[in-house]
Amino acid sequence: MDTYDPTQIERRWQAAWAADRAWEVPNEGDGEAAYVLEMLPYPSGEPHIGHLKNYAVGDAVAHFLRRRGKRVMHPMGYDAFGLPAENHALRTGQHPRESTEASIRSFRSAFDAWGISIDWTRQFATHEPAYYRWTQWLFLRLFEAGLAYRAQAPVKWCPNDQTVLANEQVIDGRCERCETPVESRRLEQWFLRITDYAERLLEGLNEIDWPEHVKTMQRNWIGRSQGAQITFRCDELQHELPVFTTRPDTAYGATFVILAPEHPDVLRLTAGTTREREVRAYVDHAATMPAEQRSNDRRAPTGVSVGRVVTNPVNGEQLPVFVADYVLGDYGTGAVMGVPAHDRRDFAFAEAFDLPIRRVIVEPGAPPAPLPYVGDGVLANCGPELDGLSPNAAAAQILRRLRDRDLGHERRSYRLRDWLVSRQRYWGCPIPIIHCPTCGPVAVPDAELPVLLPEIENYAPEGVSPLAGAHAWVEVVCPSCASPARRDTDTLDTFVDSSWYFLRYCDPASAEAPWSPAAVDRWMPVDQYVGGVEHAILHLLYARFFCKALRDLGHLCVDEPFRRLFTQGMITRNGAKMSKNRGNVVSPAPIVERYGADTARAYVLFIAAPEQDADWSDAGVEGMHRFLARLWRLCCHAAATPASEPPRIPEDGNDDDRRIMRKTHWAIEKVTGDMAERFALNTAIAAVRELVNEASPERQGGAAPATVRFALTTAVSLIFPFAPHTACDAFDRLEGRALWREPWPVAEQVWLHSDTFELVVQVDGRLRDRVNASTSATDEQLVALATAQPNAAAWLTGRDVIRHVVVPGRLVNLVTG
Asked: Are 110 and 73 in contact (CB under 8 A)?
């Protein structure tokens, strides 16, 4: 057969892999374990080209490691709870479970068609009771340890989805899913104490091999600041108001206090005052604004007085309290002291609201600087004991006085806030808590897990969870005192489900525990994790927190879940992000049907470095298809040609043999290095294409058939991680063996070092000649050699003198004009 038929080839090898159970790996066995994982997909609709790129990257790594002798676990699951399925149910009347499972079938069909090397014995979906039983069990362990708690707090509320959102799920003041402007509400919610792990989450970033920009995003989100906490007191309400500041030395310059709109005391301080309605309206408006806009120094300041005053503990002055949107709730305590003489934003606010401005830092011996003054200096106008001291010395003395009165202390503050996990939605994991009027929140006994999600008819939220209407399910007795009680009707944020799924893959059939310690010890941490950078703060931070907390509770031995992380870039079309609204979405299905899965897989990895965004090109797809077809046909021809042994050392064979052998071992070293060290999958594929060009009939010259056959056999071995079906078929024709069981080729050093190399000669960017050159030649000698070659010399004849010459490595480019 000389016709490259990818459909037939791919069906044949997918069946062979299934019959061989090629990708299954038991927990027990010899050899070094390697865990390769892509972020589990949310099953909504059908997979798109971005999914293909994500799983093609991970699959290439899995294949590479297997053939280098590792026992690779490469599992798959589905992040199946969440809003899209529930919203689909509201639109169509189809139960979320039905639409979710239909989508899972579509994804599984696509993965099979793409030939992704998944160990399907480990498959699960997070909406399955066998899985969320253990999500509930883990929540209860956090609850018992005090790491899960219920508190009343101002929250971000999506009026369209009728549910609470975590801070991270609000993008530019809008719900990340439906883009509706969010509102502020005060509700009693469940939180996880991720803030207890802020410092360890920062320190752990130094121990893992992650892209630096992802680490920076997490560091910025955690947002560590060193400073002090000072307690201001509202005597009227007998209420203490802790304020965080990085400049305790300027406390004598404070002339007002500002609360963030999200601050939990805002509504308490305004209750019963004439300001209550105005403050509430201001708070609601601030909730719709993105943090970047609120903290923009160039904005005109806005704010509202709350109608109360507090006492400055350093001097006893009564300071007015405002709520202003330039203060963010996730900074310090959400309350700041306004020192307008020495802070630009405070200065603008004081001028806008006609508030006092008091200078307390001056430059010694210099005339008063214009305000606000944010430079170095010494204290002034703070009393004889402080005036003239440096800011550090003054801060130490001020804090010593405050500590003696229990009104202040040094503090390290974090921008990070506890993780809000309550959701007023149906399609999620029920929170396994029973609320008893006598006992308070009580854990559902482990023996009664899972708390199954009940069947209901109306999924529409109306300010409370739809589960609240399932009275037979809600009304229970207290496990502690047997009094009438009620189940918690909220469900868990779906990021809880995905914060531990990678642990379940290690032992997915376990019915006695979420995992066995031996299985987790064998596989964790994940050696290579692949996924989108959009999860840098949400999923990746939460998963790290889960591992650290579970280790502290004695359930894990690992502290960090993902040893190495790779974040792939997006695929765009005509430079624009793909979306259904733009009508530019590329579906993999018709591409696979027309060109084959190998073409689609290899192309998405070839068009750009995998961490970069890449623009889709239909012509590029056709080009990759032609390359694979050409490689396959060359292999068919070589397989039909008798061949002996290729040269073993550079002295054997003729010049063409040596040239092809050197190129072959160069390609082995290049592809191996690109995959093992640089994650440069695009240049790895390019190297294989170079090797195939070298072994093509027009370049073979006098090389022996055995040399050509060796080069082509190596080429298909190297292309296997990217185009496994074509590679297996070609290798079977050449060698009659299963390529996936073959070891990865190793470059022989004797072929990598030579006194000569092939010099490529271009004129005005077009190839004109190739010639062997000495590795010790200077650039000038290489130029002289290049200009002496027949084709180059002929092209240069009669043209203007060479303007300049570029000699990058093995290429001479002669530029005329």
From this structure: no
pLDDT on residue 169: 72
CB-based contacts of 505: which residues, under 8 Å, 6+ apart?
Answer: 37, 73, 75, 77, 122, 523
* Residue 172 or residue 265, greater confidence: 265
Cα separations in angstroms, 791 against 765, 767, 778, 796: 14, 9, 22, 9
What DSSP element (H or E) covers 61? helix 49-67
Return the amino acid letter for 173.
Answer: G
3-class DSSP assignment, residue 609: coil
Let me know: does 602 contact 722? Beta carbons within 8 Å: yes
How confident is the model at residue 287, as a pLDDT? Answer: 78
Distance CA 156, CA 283 (A): 11
Average pLDDT over residues 440-452: 98
Q: Find out whether 161 and 461 touch, Cβ atoms under 8 Å.
A: yes
Encoding tokens for residue 448? 């009664």
* Position 297 pLDDT exceeds 80: no
- Three-state SS string over 173-190 comes to CEECCCCCECEEEEEEEE
Instruction: Report residue 231 CA to chain centroid gap.
Output: 39
By residue count, the chain amounts to 817
Q: For the chain, how far is it from start to end, CA to CA, in angstroms?
A: 51
Q: Does residue 466 contact residue 86 with C-beta atoms inside 8 Å?
A: no
Write a three-state SS string for 423-481: ECCCCCCECCEEEECCCEEEECCHHHCCCCCCCCCCCCCCCCCHHHHCHHHHEEECCCC
How many Å apart are CA 587 and CA 314, to the nearest integer? Answer: 65
Taking alpha carbons only, the member of 692, 685, 695 closest to residue 723 is: 685
Tokens 């989508």, located at residue: 103
Q: Which residues contact 319 (CB under 8 A, 6 or more apart)?
A: 232, 254, 255, 256, 257, 309, 310, 311, 312, 337, 338
Closest CA to 105 of 172, 158, 46, 20: 46
Per the listing, tokens 């405070």 go with: 346
Q: Which amino acid is at 77?
A: G
Which residues make Cβ contacts (< 8 Å) with residue 637, sequence separation at least 6?
none
Q: How far is CA 120 from CA 76, 78, 124, 347, in A?
A: 7, 12, 9, 62
pLDDT in tens, 198-244: 999 999 999 999 999 999 999 999 999 999 999 999 999 999 999 99
- For 571-584, write each residue's pLDDT tens digit: 988 877 776 667 77
Q: How many CA atoms lie within 13 A of 221 on its CB side?
A: 23
CA separation for the pair 638, 692 (Å, rounded)? 13
d(CA 246, CA 226): 6
In 10 A of CB 498, how many CB atoms? 24
Number of H helices and E strands in the chain, helices first, is: 27, 34
For residues 156 and 167, is the Cβ–Cβ distance under 8 A? yes
DSSP 557: S
Q: Give residue 489's identity as a one-letter amino acid code.
A: T
